[in-house]
Amino acid sequence: MCNSENHSHPTRRKFFQLTGASVVGAAVLSSQLLSTNVHAASKDDKAPPKPQNVLTPKEALDHLMQGNARYVDGVARRHDFRHDRDALTAGQNPYAAVLSCSDSRIAPEYAFDSARGDIFAVRVAGNFVSNEGLGSLEYAVAVLKTPLVMVLGHDGCGAVSAAVKMQKDKASYPGKIQEIARSLTPSVQKVLAEKGDLLDNAIRQNVIDTVDKLKNSSLILSEAVSSRKLMIVGGIYELATGKVKLI
Ligand SMILES: [Zn+2]
Q1: Which of the four pLDDT bands, split at 50, 70 and 90, describes residue 78?
Q2: Centre of ligand 1 from the C-alpha of residue 58, in Å
Q3: N or C: lower Cβ tally within 10 Å for the chain?
Q4: What are the extents of the domains in the chain?
């Protein structure tokens, strides 16, 4: 464990230097400088612990959806967590990052029939973007070279439902739950006049808005998208079937 800690420090240090540079001089940080720093971080990388996870964005999406198809059909693979333990002690190279709701019914590792080291999961009720969530995804992309980010909403989402009730019935919630509902309100407001079920429409709109936000509010992510190293997609998990439908 001590060796693995030492191994990870240079990469981690460079990432935080990079983050610091983004904060201090975001306006003047050219994309070329960013590329150089990201590239410098990659020089510290050794052979990836899971070579099969080195995929193009399109391959990563196919892989993820194939895993979901197995999960839906009830033919999930048997994952032997013992044999990959050594490789994963030294590092990680997940092929997908998933920003999903915290809802206990949609654990992304199960939904995509994945093993340890496959999915970098960021979870918050309502699957919206916080600064910390964005930083986590930037880390996955800039340092771990994850080629795919999926924003995963789900039907019957309690967090989005809370935002809908706040909007329509002036509902209020205790503690920080109110903050979550408030964060989701802009997406609800966009679909108030739309036909169909308001909650379903708001859930979908929230995923669309979250994908847009990831694409447009992070230099690290937008640079990776424009250089075709990263794809950012949205999906909705259907509780009754387990199926993830891409938006
Ligand atoms: Zn939810």
Answers
A1: confident
A2: 27
A3: N
A4: 1-46, 50-246
